[in-house]
Structure formats: structure tokens, C-alpha cells
């Protein structure tokens, strides 16, 4: 989407870059990554919080008070100050996007690949480790992070997306392949 690219270029990217630079100069890249993950989980789990942050009618002081109450003592002081700057500059509605972009930049910096895994059932630790090893082999990454999602429509197996590569080892995918082969024979 063109609008999304403009949003990334004009707003999210510069703030995420600034946060990454701050993290690098203070040896807090990983800590900021943990903070970004916590912020994303918190904001994405509360429609009320999202609406409040996006509203132009909530005053800056009220937003700062709520954010300090939610995150105070749970995130790095630099990150807390960064959030307050976003409120002051009326960019707080982009907080989740900036945190997502920060994670993208941090992964690039550290050679980490994000593997988005959809499976029919919850994966155990051994299965996750197998997926990590497979993705490392395919992508030559230093590390692999897994973001898993349960998708009962897959029937069984997994679909792994790492960057532009997709590995479809699902029962649904295999049935689709069989169907295509049979259609070609008919």
C-alpha cells in the first residue's frame, strides 16, 4: 500500500531509527526490543487504549499520566522519555507502528529473521526448535524469532513465512498440491 509506505518513510522509520541510535549509544538495543514488545502487546490488547491514544481530544497531560501509569517502572527510562516526546509531538498514535518498525530494524542489525508460523495446533518447544533450524538453513540467519499463530483451517502441519520465502508443510497445502496435479492429469 502506498499510504503505508509513506507512513513508514515519513513517520515510523525516523522515530524507530532515532530509538535504535539511542539504544546503540547506551547499549540498550535488546532492552528497547523487550520494551517495544511489551508496548506492542499492551497497546494491541486494549481497544480502549488504542482509541485513547489516537483521539485528538484526550489532552497531552492525560495521555502522559495514563502511559506513566501503565508503563512506569516496567520499561527503560529512555523509552519512557521517548514515549513522552511522542505525546508532546502529537505522534503518540504511531506508538505501536514505531515499536514494530524498531523491531524490524533491530532484527536487521542483529541478523535475526522473523519466522511467521501458522499451525493447526500449538507447537511444542522441540517443534519450534526444528523450525528455527530449518529457517536458519534456508535463510542463513544468525538467529530466528518465531511468531506463531494457530490456524485450525490448516487441518494439520505448518506454514512458515520467513521474509519472502514460504514453506507450506500443511495438510491443506498438500491436498491443494494433489488437487492441482489431478486437475492437470484430467
Automatic annotation (TrEMBL):
<keyword id="KW-0813">Transport</keyword>
<dbReference type="GO" id="GO:0045259">
    <property type="term" value="C:proton-transporting ATP synthase complex"/>
</dbReference>
<keyword id="KW-0406">Ion transport</keyword>
<dbReference type="InterPro" id="IPR000711">
    <property type="entry name" value="ATPase_OSCP/dsu"/>
</dbReference>
<keyword id="KW-0375">Hydrogen ion transport</keyword>
<comment type="function">
    <text>This protein is part of the stalk that links CF(0) to CF(1). It either transmits conformational changes from CF(0) to CF(1) or is implicated in proton conduction.</text>
</comment>
<keyword id="KW-0139">CF(1)</keyword>
<dbReference type="Pfam" id="PF00213">
    <property type="entry name" value="OSCP"/>
</dbReference>
<protein>
    <recommendedName>
        <fullName>ATP synthase subunit delta</fullName>
    </recommendedName>
</protein>
<keyword id="KW-0793">Thylakoid</keyword>
<comment type="function">
    <text>F(1)F(0) ATP synthase produces ATP from ADP in the presence of a proton or sodium gradient. F-type ATPases consist of two structural domains, F(1) containing the extramembraneous catalytic core and F(0) containing the membrane proton channel, linked together by a central stalk and a peripheral stalk. During catalysis, ATP synthesis in the catalytic domain of F(1) is coupled via a rotary mechanism of the central stalk subunits to proton translocation.</text>
</comment>
<dbReference type="InterPro" id="IPR026015">
    <property type="entry name" value="ATP_synth_OSCP/delta_N_sf"/>
</dbReference>
<keyword id="KW-0066">ATP synthesis</keyword>
<dbReference type="GO" id="GO:0031676">
    <property type="term" value="C:plasma membrane-derived thylakoid membrane"/>
</dbReference>
<comment type="similarity">
    <text>Belongs to the ATPase delta chain family.</text>
</comment>
<dbReference type="GO" id="GO:0046933">
    <property type="term" value="F:proton-transporting ATP synthase activity, rotational mechanism"/>
</dbReference>
<keyword id="KW-0472">Membrane</keyword>
<dbReference type="InterPro" id="IPR020781">
    <property type="entry name" value="ATPase_OSCP/d_CS"/>
</dbReference>
